From TrEMBL:
HTH tetR-type domain sequence ranges: 28-88
Protein name as it appears in the record: TetR family transcriptional regulator
Keywords: DNA-binding, Transcription, Transcription regulation
InterPro entries listed in its UniProt record: Homeodomain-like_sf, HTH-type_TetR-like_transc_reg, HTH_TetR, MftR_C, Tet_transcr_reg_TetR-rel_C_sf
Length: 212
């Protein structure tokens, strides 16, 4: 079990969200409300048995509004707002840190806060991803289109290279690989509260060149 964070540490993540422009905060609240209703309905009825129309009705919005926030039904499960926060935290790490060291510091801060603040939501999303084939496929697409692109940009900035640099691309995929390995270890039975430690262990292993 991970050690609970002090309240001031949890508040740091909330503060980052609170600093968003008012319009973005309103969009975030609406997106979270839709996701909450969707996860509740998936739990009650099953993922395949729940329609976008039912989610929209529960959230008191139109189906067209749903699709303004989530391009597909799968996205209501796999989408979150943490990539830009992660990027901000990464950019704030001391310049002398290597990309791996900066990533370990970033994930060491953001993951415990996420799991302590939104453990129930994250657990529901991960369990759905583990059991619904369409969600597993969409999760990979989301990683490639979202998280990979963000990681590639901030890593390239830190090392002073282009995002098209083959080494930057390869390094970024390696990072995503060890992150996914931590997730699959959880799927095999590790408590979800241990994910921050699993991620850090895997990043440290990557930093040593993955010796076997």
């Amino acid at each position: 079990m991970s050690t609970p964070l002090p309240e001031y540490a949890i508040d740091r993540l909330r503060d980052r969200l609170d600093r968003l422009p008012l319009r973005e905060r309103k969009k975030l609240r609406t997106r979270r409300a839709i996701q909450d209703h969707a996860l509740r309905l998936f739990s009650e009825r099953g993922y395949d048995e729940t329609t976008v129309e039912q989610i929209a009705a529960a959230a008191e919005i139109s189906p067209s509004t749903f699709f303004r926030y989530f391009p597909t039904k799968e996205d209501v499960v796999v989408t979150d707002e943490y990539d830009p926060i992660m990027a901000e935290m990464f950019r704030e790490q001391p310049a002398e840190l290597s990309p791996i060291e900066a990533l370990r510091a970033t994930f060491g801060e953001i993951l415990p806060q996420m799991y302590q603040d939104e453990l129930e939501t994250i657990t529901a999303r991960m369990r759905l991803t583990a059991t619904v084939p369409a969600l597993r496929a969409r999760t990979f697409e989301s990683l490639r289109e979202g998280t990979h692109a963000v990681l590639k940009e901030i890593i390239a900035e830190r090392v002073g290279r282009s995002t098209d640099d083959p080494d930057v691309k390869t390094f970024t995929w390696a990072v995503l690989g060890v992150l996914q390995a931590a997730m699959y270890e959880w799927l095999d039975g590790a408590p979800i509260e241990e994910l921050p430690a699993l991620v850090d262990r895997n990043l440290e292993f990557l930093s040593r060149g993955c010796p076997l």
